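Hi U.,

Before I forget, here's the chain from the pilot set. I'm dumping it here mostly so it's searchable later in email.
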Amino acid sequence: MSGLTTGPDAVGPAGDEGPGAPLRVVHVLDSFTAGGAQAVAVQLSAWLAARGAEAHLLGVDGPLAADARRSLGPARVHVRPGTVAVGGSVGRFVAGLRALDRACREVRPHVLHAHQRREALQCLLVGARHGVPVVEHAHTYLPRAGLRALSFRSAAVFAVSDHVGAMIADRFGRRDGVLVVGNAPARTTDRPVLPVPPPGGRPLRIVGLGRLVEQKDPLRFVRVVAAAARVVDVEAVWHGDGPLLDEARALASRLGAPVVFAGHADDVPARIDAADALLMTSAWEGLPLVVLEAFARHRPVVATAASGAPGALGDGRAVVVPDDADDETAARLLTTALADRTRTTEQVSLAAGWLARRATPDAVFGPVLRTYDELRRRAAPRGRRP
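Structure:
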C-alpha cells in the first residue's frame, strides 16, 4: 500500500508501536443484521481472536451485535448510531466515514476488512488517511454490476466461491489480488447429528431459511411447496424476516400452500434438524452458509442452481433444480428425491465429506490471516518487522 497518503491529523500506521504487538483488524459492516456476511465477520473475528489477534467489529446496531459481544467481548464491538434505511445515502456514507475514523484512532488497526462494497470505499478513504491497508470480502454474486469503477479496489479481495471470483474478474475488471477462500458453517452445535427420519405416516417437512427478500425468492419457495402439496402430504416452515413477508403470506393463503412463516431463528442447526430437507430457491448467491449448515447436520439440500457455488452443490451433494425449471418440475424433483432413501443417504454422506475437506474454518480463514500478515509486513517501517 505504498501509494497511500497520510493526512495531517492521522494517527500513523499501527505497526509503529514496535515488534511483537498482536495483529489488530477492524471488520467493517453496514450493520449487525442477521445476514451471511455479518455471520462470517463474527466467525472470522472469533477465529482470529483464538489465535492471539485482536479483532474488532464496526457497524450499525442490529440483532447480531449480541452474538459478537459474546464471542469477542463488549470492548471489541463498535456499534454506531443510525440505521441502514434512514438518513439518505450521502448521510449514511458520511456517518460511516466518521465512525470508521474514530475506530482507527481508538484501535490503531494493522488492517481494515470491509464486508460490503460501500464499506470498502469508506475503508479506502479512511485507510489512506491513517496509512492502514484495506481488504474486502465478496460474499455473494451480484446480478447487476453497478459502480464498476469503484468496486473491488482493495489490496486483496476474498471471494467465497469460484463463480464470485469470476464475476469480479469478468464484470468488474479486477483480475489480480482475488483469492477464492470459500465459506465454513458459521452456526454450529455440539448436539449429535440426527439421521433423517423416514416420513412414514406424517407430512414431509421442508425448511427455508433467510431474509424474505428478492435474492432469496421466498415467493418461489411458496409456489414450489404449493405444487408439492398437490402430490404428497407436506408442511413447510420459513425462518427469517424481511420486506416480502406480507406478500409471501398472501401468496401462501391464495395457493393453499402449507407454509408457516416463523420469523427469525436463533438456533439454525435446530431448525435444520427438525426438517427432512432444506429447500433453497434463491435467484443468486455466493456460497450460502445455510447450505453448509445443512451439510453439517446431514440434511438433504434441494436448491436452484443459483442458490450456491457449483463446486459445492455438484457431484451428487445436492439435488439441483435448473434455474429455468417451472414450479411443478421443482416440486417433482423435491418429492421424488426425498422419497428415495438410498439416494438421500448417499447425498448427505457426500456433502459431509466435502465439508470436512473443503469448508473448515482453518481452510477458509488461513489464507485471510496470511494476507493480513503480508500487508502488515509491507506497512511496517523499514528495518522493523512487527
